[in-house]
Design goal:
Blueprint (H helix, E strand, L loop, with lengths): L2 H15 L12 H14 L7 H18 L17
Length: 85
């Protein structure tokens, strides 16, 4: 399964869990798909879910993490009081 297919599969599974979400369609736009997946993951109750879902979710989130990269502590610079946030 490609990364895009995994994202769509996860969205479809989460939408199917809740009858209120069945009217939603999976967006065509990649960023809109990512936003929807994140929203669905954030509002999902901590109910049991099957191992296949957890495996696909883990692989998908791992790949997202690799794409973003990990910031090393040595790369961080302390803020001064003059810095704007």
């Amino acid at each position: 399964m490609t990364h895009e297919e995994s994202r769509k599969w996860l969205i479809a599974r989460l939408l199917a869990e809740n009858p209120e979400y069945r009217r939603y369609q999976i967006p065509e736009n990649e960023q809109e798909q990512k936003d929807l997946l994140r929203a669905l993951m954030n509002v999902r109750m901590p109910d049991p879910i099957d191992d296949e879902f957890l495996r696909v979710q883990d692989e998908y989130l791992w790949e997202e993490t690799v794409k973003k990269g990990i910031v090393e502590l040595s790369e961080l610079k302390p803020c001064s009081t003059d810095d704007e946030f």
